[in-house]
Automatic annotation (TrEMBL):
Organism lineage: unclassified sequences, metagenomes, ecological metagenomes
Keywords carried by this UniProt record: Hydrolase
A GO-annotated cellular component: cytosol
PROSITE patterns: TATD_2
Range of residues in the leader sequence: none
UniProt-listed PANTHER family: D-AMINOACYL-TRNA DEACYLASE
The keyword Hydrolase is annotated on this UniProt entry: yes
A GO MF term: hydrolase activity, acting on ester bonds
Protein name: Hydrolase TatD
InterPro entries: DNase_TatD-rel_CS, Metal_Hydrolase, TatD-like
A Pfam family recorded for this sequence: TatD_DNase
Keyword Kinase applies: no
Length: 146
């Protein structure tokens, strides 16, 4: 029995053969797939996918390359989405210094807020880290000791 902990099945590229992908996964003993969101819309799509396919679960979160403020409204939407039983994690969250789309300080702030949300809800996290290893480890270490 295998679990794919990071598969963006909601991406448009899979619209034509999503069922076949899930069938092939099952043939290879992949019995569970976690589909992480990268913003509110894709988090909703991940949840919709989880509601449609029994082998799929959702994670909800804001990817570090999403360039907008993580305001109270967005956090409330994440909380609401997270309350669904098919949501099993907060993610895809973290730091990405490779693309430099979002300033690092903003990424760090959003990462910490979403880690706190995961703690509050008792959910694990799916971490995205690209060219930001030291900062990612430091933030996770701070979070775990608080």
């Amino acid at each position: 029995m295998l679990t794919d902990t990071h598969c963006h099945l909601d991406f448009q590229i899979f619209d034509q053969d999503r069922h076949q992908i899930l069938e092939r996964a099952a043939q290879h003993k992949v019995t569970r797939i976690i589909n992480p969101g990268t913003n509110i819309e894709t988090s909703k799509a991940a949840l919709q996918m989880a509601n449609q396919f029994t082998s799929v679960s959702a994670a909800v979160g804001i990817h570090p390359n999403e360039d907008f403020d993580l305001d109270k409204s967005t956090m409330q939407q994440l909380r609401i989405l997270s309350s669904h039983p098919n949501v099993v994690a907060i993610g895809e969250i973290g730091l990405d210094y490779f693309r430099n789309i979002t300033p690092p300080d903003k990424q760090k702030h959003r990462f910490r807020i979403q880690l706190d949300l995961a703690s509050e809800l008792g959910l694990p996290v799916i971490v995205h880290c690209r060219d930001a290893y030291e900062d990612t480890i430091n933030i996770i270490s701070e979070w775990q000791s608080s």
